[in-house]
Design a protein that fits this description.
mainly beta, Immunoglobulin-like, 2 domains, 5-stranded antiparallel β-sheet, 4-stranded antiparallel β-sheet, 15 strands, 51% strand
Length: 176
């Protein structure tokens, strides 16, 4: 999320037409088109964040700027050339790294929170713990995971929360 993404399309010599057909999970479909005989581009219902990366007559790649969860979906490039028609389809999944916070609750128990990640983060503790994480789903498809540290022994002073996620792993330590 937040980065730019470039989806390539098979570049062919003697291209007649290139069309990107985009079907996001949220909102209606959109298309970007290019006709070589008229050297003309066309866009229908596409947001400003989606456009040709370069000139479509040279390279038909699609660029999505500031990728958001709403960009998830199917992206198909169709190239019409003298040697035939060519298709390439992408299924875009957007990863959202969770925000990690670690704090002590009113009872002095460490609490680890991995907020608004997509997909849900895995939360664990460096020291052995029998905690059961709680998950809370949000309307935008992100998930917050909350885990309270429950130690097997009472003489634990410092502990570390580890958050594993496809967008990157994080850890923080605390003494309560």
């Amino acid at each position: 999320v937040g980065n730019s993404s470039v989806l390539t399309c098979p570049p062919k010599s003697n291209t007649t037409m290139v069309t990107w057909k985009i079907s996001p999970k949220v909102g209606g479909p959109c298309t970007l088109g290019y006709r070589a005989d008229q050297n003309k581009t066309d866009r229908t219902n596409c947001s400003d964040s989606m456009n040709w990366k370069f000139r479509p007559d040279r390279d038909p790649a699609l660029e999505i700027r500031q990728v958001g969860i709403a960009h998830e979906g199917s992206y198909t490039c169709e190239v019409v050339a003298t040697e035939g028609n060519f298709h390439k389809t992408y299924h875009l999944t957007v990863l959202v790294p969770p925000r990690l916070t670690l704090y002590c609750d009113d009872q002095g128990t460490p609490v680890c929170k991995a907020a608004a990640g997509k997909p849900a983060a895995q939360v664990s503790w460096v020291l052995e713990s029998n905690s059961t994480p709680k998950e809370e789903g949000h309307d935008n498809g992100t998930v917050t995971v909350l885990s309270k540290f429950t130690a097997y022994s009472t003489n634990v002073t410092n502990t570390t929360c580890v958050v594993s996620h496809p967008a990157g792993n994080q850890s923080k330590s605390i003494a309560c």
